[in-house]
Amino acid sequence: MKLTEQQVRHVARLARLALSPEELVTYREQLSAVLDAVDALAQVDTTGVVPTSVVGASTPHLRADVPHGEVGVKVALANAPQVDGTSFAIPRVIE
Amino acid sequence: MKGLVALTKALADGATSSVETTKALLQKPDLVGAFLLRDDAGALAAAKASDERRARGAALGPLDGVSVALKDNILTEGVVTTAGSKLLAGFVPPYDATVTTRLKAAGAVLLGKTNLDEFGMGSSTENSAFQQTKNPFDLTRTPGGSSGGSAAAVAAGLCAGALGTDTGGSIRQPAAFTGLVGLKPTYGRVSRAGVVAYASSLDQVGPLARSVEDVALLLEAIEGFDAADSTSSDVAKTAWREGLRSGVKGLRVGLPKELFVDGMDPEIDASVRAAARRLEALGAHVVELSLPHTKYALATYYVIAPCEASSNLGRYDGVRYGHRAKDVKALKDLYEKSRSEGLGPEVKRRIMLGTFALSAGYHDAYYVKAQQVRTLIRRDYEAAFASVDVVLSATSPVLPWRLGEKLDDPLAMYLMDVLTLPCNLAGLPGLSMPCGQSKAGLPIGLQLLGRPFDEATLLRAAHALEADLNLSLEPR
């Protein structure tokens, strides 16, 4: 499948990636080439075949919903690019 | 460097100490660019603690004092973990991955963090944002990837063993390229908690080392149920080394014709077939078989893995940790600029591929379709394992290529994974081991695949073959 420039721009926006005009051209070519190869899947008859989302002997298990392994505010914020007191700081979103 | 089991014996006998071996390894120059970080202070402190335990007669087990390295997508508390991405440069994890915790509990000395393709996305370690890693057998060639740093570190004698991760072959292919044994355990055998996520239904942590027994020992230390990973399996832990020497008499080995692909390097083809004949000579029954959906594995993988990646990597927003773009006024721009500046081209490619395949109008044709074909691939293997115990093929269709050679053509790079991908899609255990050397002296690896949770048979077959071939592959 050949992607249009419009489609690549749309996908980049959904993925929150900004592309330069040169990148747009390169990715359009490269993604189209991969999708061409991937289109082989259409040849397979999958009528009635159950999709596999996860493999394994058992179904995924969930632990009890109780807090554990608390790291504390200081550690939790240690890798933050910008901090305001005990919070992560971001640009203003409400005027 | 003789290997991990040899080191455990030397430590137990008092022939060496952990401090002595750790110091020697840390002082060895890293000429192959295997390590992103060597934790000299942490490793020496752990080595000293190990020697003290041993002196008191309180050694924690065979791995106590043994030096290992971790791929840099495995979290280490207080020690920078980057996943090979500029986006995570300087990131200091607040906790250990479960496999890190388990190695520490076994007394292992963690030497440092090894290079990888960014977030595990690649087959040559060239997609690392930081440095190139070279193959110890030929410094102009790739060590494979994405666990190329771990493979190069072990092969160059910079550590006794290492952990890697394998989403589509990232342990097995670098092991093959560097003359090592590498094991991707059955999906769910080893916890993924604290491992930087790439494609969650395919990712698995596993060992790389110089012998089958070394790998078995590392597997013992890291496997087992973990409540922190919802897909962790509660199968019993095993003493893997006990069954290693039972031989292969009566073992049924399948050679799938679809995995002996067109365009495969003739030296590899000959070497793998010769190994199959050795297994036969040792008492195994070798039969040809067919896995009809193999030709769709590449397409299936390159839909499912990018879809999962696009979702997993959505967390990198420049807010809580990781790279943040400067001088940004709006939140939307903060996300977009931080991600665009921090992520490399292959990662962007896979994120966009996955985003496209999950987008409205394409979800069923790509993502659901690929999941259905995944079922068919899994069924192929279920049917095969009704009549054989292991499936044998080459690990890689080609020898290690020259650095830079395949960087311009992503699809050509993806094709290199064609023999290793089905194992992840089907959730099987897979092992790569050396079976020969090319005329130019490059290592050749073969791959054994087994039934889910039957690593025992893989390790037993590999051990028998290893003893029979008696190769000693050493970098020049």
Strand ordering within the main sheet of chain A: 1-2
Structural class of chain A: mainly alpha
Mean pLDDT level of chain A: 92
Strands of chain B, total number = 11
Low-confidence spans of chain B: pLDDT under 50, at least 5 residues?
Answer: none
Which architecture of the domain at 4-250 and 428-443 and 452-469 in chain B per CATH? Alpha-Beta Complex
**CATH topology of the domain at 4-250 and 428-443 and 452-469 in chain B, which one?**
Amidase signature (AS) enzymes
How far apart the termini of chain B lie comes to: 14 Å
Q: What's the helix-strand series of chain B?
A: HHEHEHEHEHEEHEHEHHHHEHHEEH
Beta-strand level of the residues of chain B, as a percent range? 5-15%
| Overall SS class of chain B | alpha/beta
CATH topology assignment of the domain at 5-43 in chain A = Histone, subunit A
Tell me the number of strands of chain A.
Answer: 2
Radius of gyration of chain B: 21 Å
- CATH top-level class of the domain at 5-43 in chain A: Mainly Alpha
Helix content of chain A: 25-40%
Q: What best-fitting shape of chain B do the alpha-carbon axes yield? A: globular
Q: What is the CATH architecture assignment of the domain at 5-43 in chain A?
A: Orthogonal Bundle
Largest interface, Cβ cutoff 8 Å: A-B, 53 and 74 residues
Task: Give an account of the 3D structure.
The complex is a heterodimer of chains A (95) and B (476). Chain A has 95 residues and is mostly helical. Helix content of chain A is 35%, strand content 4%. Chain A has three helices and two strands; from the N terminus they run αααββ. Chain A has helices at residues 5-14, 21-38, 73-77; strands at 83-84, 87-88. Chain B has 476 residues and is an alpha/beta fold. Chain B has a domain at 4-250 and 428-443 and 452-469: Amidase signature (AS) enzymes, CATH 3.90.1300.10. Helices cover 37% and strands 13% of the residues of chain B. Chain B has helices at residues 4-13, 18-27, 40-55, 98-105, 148-155, 172-177, 212-222, 266-281, 297-312, 331-342, 345-357, 363-387, 410-415, 421-426, 455-469; strands at 35-38, 67-71, 109-114, 161-165, 181-184, 205-209, 252-256, 285-289, 390-394, 430-437, 443-450. In chain B, strands 1-3-2-4-6-5-10-11-9-7-8 form an eleven-stranded mixed sheet, sandwiched between helices. In chain B, helix 2 (18-27) runs antiparallel to helix 3 (40-55), helix 9 (297-312) packs across helix 11 and helix 9 crosses helix 12. The longest helix of chain B is centred in the C-terminal third of the chain and has 25 residues, at 363-387. The mean pLDDT of chain B is 96. Chains A and B meet through helix 1 and helix 2 of A and helix 9, helix 10, helix 11, helix 12 and helix 13 of B.
